Amino acid sequence: MEPSSFFTINDEQIDLYQVIQYLQVSGKLNQFISDVLRQYVLEQELETRNDIEISTALIEQAIIDYRLKNQLTDPEQFQKWLKNNGSDYATFHASVTFSFKLEKLKALIVEPKLPEYFIERKIYLDRVVLSRIMVDNRELAEELHTQIEEGGSFEQLAKEYSLADERIFNGMMGPISRGSLPDILRAAVDAATPGKLIGPIELEGSLSLFRLENILPASLENTQFKQSLQNELFEKWLGEKIQNLTVKLQVS
What we know:
Layout: E1 5-9, E2 12-15, H1 16-26, H2 29-48, H3 56-69, H4 75-84, H5 89-110, H6 114-125, E3 127-135, H7 138-149, H8 154-161, E4 172-177, H9 183-190, E5 197-203, E6 206-216, H10 223-243
Antiparallel strand pairs: 1-2, 3-4, 3-6, 5-6
Helix pairs in contact: 2-10, 3-5, 5-10
Enzyme class: isomerase
Catalytic activity: [protein]-peptidylproline (omega=180) = [protein]-peptidylproline (omega=0)
GO molecular function, one term: peptidyl-prolyl cis-trans isomerase activity
């Protein structure tokens, strides 16, 4: 086989240059390069650190658990599964080891930065639940405000008068990022308590009445939310590392 050969299809040798061409034509070359750069950065980082040690017992137990979960306890069946997936035991073992090291690397990089990053992002992570009645003139907005303050049904008035799509849901807009709110609305929301009527406020040529339904503050005590934020921060770190690489595509 020629040194440049990448693999064969029906005994025809496909070299790396052809692979690159196929990826270019299919529009997948950039993603391919991105994946390679990502793995390169991670491997380099893992090689240069001496604070990431994973016990052999932990890896072996993870492999046993995986085989049990996927009904691959029979050795011959497991070998067949590896072959069908283009792998072997050494490669599979290396993959499991890498996944453990990656999680430890992520923790080492992210944990010291997480509290500060959380504070920076909190305005966008906090959410509020609002209901809205949007109309096209101030007189009507003021009249509806008066009716609601006097005991009128916000939901019914939203159905009857609101021009916004959420009128079919009694005006309920659902959870919204606090940071995405226009400044004038965010200031009013921050000063309100759940159940309070806000407005009318003029936004983009329309007048709107809002009712603050609920406040959903972000918290690092939420495990799922914390994991999401950790992943976001790690990807940010990884992206900065990749941007600092000098990359030249050389295929002949």
